[in-house]
Design brief:
The structure holds 2 protein chains of 2 kinds.
Chain A (H helix, E strand, L loop, with lengths): L12 E7 L2 E7 L1 H6 L11 H13 L19 H7 L7 H4 L1 H12 L14 H21 L3 H23 L1
Antiparallel strand pairs in A: 1-2
Helix pairs in contact in A: 2-5, 6-7
Chain B lengths: L13 E10 L12 H15 L10 E5 L5 H9 L5 H5 L5 E5 L4 E5 L5 E8 L3 H18 L4 E2 L3 E2 L11 E8 L1 H5 L3 H9 L3 E5 L11 E6 L7 H47 L5 H16 L8 H10 L2 H8 L6 H24 L1
Antiparallel strand pairs in B: 1-5, 1-8, 2-3, 3-4, 4-5, 6-7, 8-10, 9-10
Helix pairs in contact in B: 1-4, 2-10, 7-8, 8-9, 10-11
The chains are: A mainly alpha, B alpha+beta.
């Protein structure tokens, strides 16, 4: 049998495709089959598909209210495009899409407060804020454990840091 | 050089440990929408902060635009896990900084402006993080990063925001795979925020029983917490794999040993080796070497062969592009010769 594509070479690759009980057969030579690779591939499941799923749930818009077009004023990326490609255009997108992104981030990350590394150049205020947040958590635990002496220590430390913070803001 | 020919802790199960950080430069659009002049700006800033500089022990970074890297070398970078396929897709704007030991690599204008990674042999996640953190600090001295108080480091895809950190181990799990325990393990680790995939081959198929396990979440926990989490789980899988290996040996006895030796025999003698078949045998041979059953080879030798047998590795050796069965014939030859050479050099010693 000759290849159905090029009709030149012997067909050595045979495909049978069944969609909705409708059967198609393809008989190709090795070369033409190589070009039709997608025939054999199972559709991939990409991060974009996943994101899309999250977004549709995350937005929870009633079906009748078409959401207004949201666009990043800095780079021009619109939210619909982001939904398709799963990638943002610039750092400002996080600001302009915050309402739409927050629920998605909660779903993907489970958490929306960064507690990791902070760039040294990001200002002492930020480092201090992180420290305060950590101390507050510790204070909570100390109170739960009824370790009041430790709790008092922590409370003073937090106060000290918070005052430092407001001074920091003045300059 | 590079991770392939250096020994590392727990290498019988963990082939490599890898840490990756995603960063973007403040006030420059992400690669998704950036103009060529933006890309050049980014490349220049990063080149200035790292080119000809060293992290520790004097291993210098070299900056090169992907457009200046020959096609086959690009593929080799990908197969050595030093660069991604994505980076190679936009050679006009992308660049790479590689340290002379091939342990640290900084990709420029991939999905994010900066994707840096440190890859070390064996189980050395903490060491990899320490090294990479230094590189991050070096760039940070010269460059202002896109950073948000609440969301952390801002990345092009929200799945990387926060720490921008992906820590991963490449594990060789032939015994757990043979015992059909992998599905259960993969399901379980997904419950603790980790994810796994096959390294070689397409889709879900894990060629050679090699899996990459990494953290899924990047925002919330600190870098150290994310890494510790992966370390704890890796240790558990490692123990399970070692127990399963011993059990296979005990129950299979000489038949088990025979199958490993046969794999060695095939690699030494085959005239045509398809990639899939090659990965099956190299995996079995690796198992034999790691259990001390095949004495002539080291794990470094085997992992070197594994990279040499990948498509671009074979083509580089032959020096030209190959098609169809040519690759499989060349692969058999490359592996035969490499094995002969290793064994000859050991016998001479």
């Amino acid at each position: 049998m000759l290849c159905q594509e090029c009709k030149l070479r012997e067909a050595t690759v045979h495909f049978t495709k069944i969609i909705n009980n409708y059967k198609t057969e393809l008989h190709l030579c090795e070369e033409c089959a190589g070009k039709q690779e997608n025939l054999m591939q199972i559709p991939s499941f990409s991060i974009n598909d996943l994101l899309q799923g999250f977004m549709d749930v995350g937005l929870a818009q009633p079906a009748y209210a078409a959401p207004p077009a949201v666009r990043c004023k800095n780079c021009g990326m619109d939210f619909e495009r982001f939904k398709k490609i799963g990638r943002l255009g610039c750092q400002e997108c996080y600001k302009y899409f915050s309402k739409e992104l927050d629920p998605i981030l909660r779903r993907i990350q489970g958490n929306i407060q960064h507690r990791g590394k902070v760039p040294a150049g990001a200002g002492t205020g930020l480092h201090r804020q992180q420290q305060i947040a950590r101390l507050k958590e510790e204070l909570q635990r100390a109170v739960e454990l009824e370790a009041y002496e430790r709790a008092a220590e922590l409370r003073d430390k937090i106060k000290e840091l918070e005052q430092g913070n407001s001074e920091g803001r003045m300059d | 050089m590079s991770w392939i020919n250096e020994s590392g802790p727990a290498r019988d199960v963990v082939i490599t440990s890898r840490i990756r950080l995603a960063r973007n430069i403040a006030s420059i659009p992400f690669p998704t929408v950036m103009q060529p002049q933006h890309a050049a700006q980014v490349a220049e800033k990063i080149r200035k902060s790292l080119h000809k500089k060293a992290v520790d022990s004097g291993s210098l970074f070299t900056f090169v635009y992907i457009r200046d890297v020959p096609e086959i070398e690009r593929q080799i970078l990908v197969e050595k896990h030093l660069a991604s396929r994505d980076l190679m897709e936009s050679p006009d704007i992308s660049a790479i900084l590689l340290d002379s030991q091939e342990k640290i690599v900084v990709m420029v204008n991939e999905e994010d402006h900066i994707r840096m990674q440190c890859i070390l042999p064996g189980f050395q996640l903490k060491e990899a993080w320490e090294k990479l953190n230094q590189v991050d600090n070096m760039i940070e001295e010269k460059v202002e990063y896109a950073f948000h108080e609440q969301l952390g480091y801002l990345t092009c895809c929200p799945t990387n925001v926060g720490t921008g950190l992906r820590s991963s181990v490449m594990m060789h799990l032939p015994a757990l795979t043979a015992n059909k325990q992998m599905n259960a393990i993969l399901q379980t680790i997904s419950k603790v925020g980790l994810t796994a995939r096959g390294i070689y081959g397409e889709g879900s198929e894990a060629l050679g029983s090699i899996y990459q396990i990494s953290n899924q979440i990047t925002l919330g926990p600190s870098e150290e917490e994310l890494i510790d989490n992966l370390i704890i789980i890796t240790k558990q899988i490692m123990e399970k794999e070692r127990i399963a290996r011993k059990a296979l040996h005990k129950t299979g006895g000489m038949q088990f040993e025979d199958s490993l030796w046969r794999a060695y025999g095939v690699l030494q003698n085959a005239r045509v080796l398809e990639l899939k078949e090659f990965m099956i045998y190299i995996s079995q041979m690796r198992l034999g070497v790691s259990m001390g059953l095949i004495p002539y080879l080291t794990l470094e030798d085997v992992d070197g062969l594994m990279t040499a047998g990948q498509p671009a590795g074979v083509m580089r050796k032959v020096g030209r592009t190959l098609e169809g069965i040519e690759v499989d014939i060349a692969r058999a030859e490359v592996i035969r010769e490499a094995l002969d050479e290793i064994i000859k050099s050991k016998k001479n010693r």
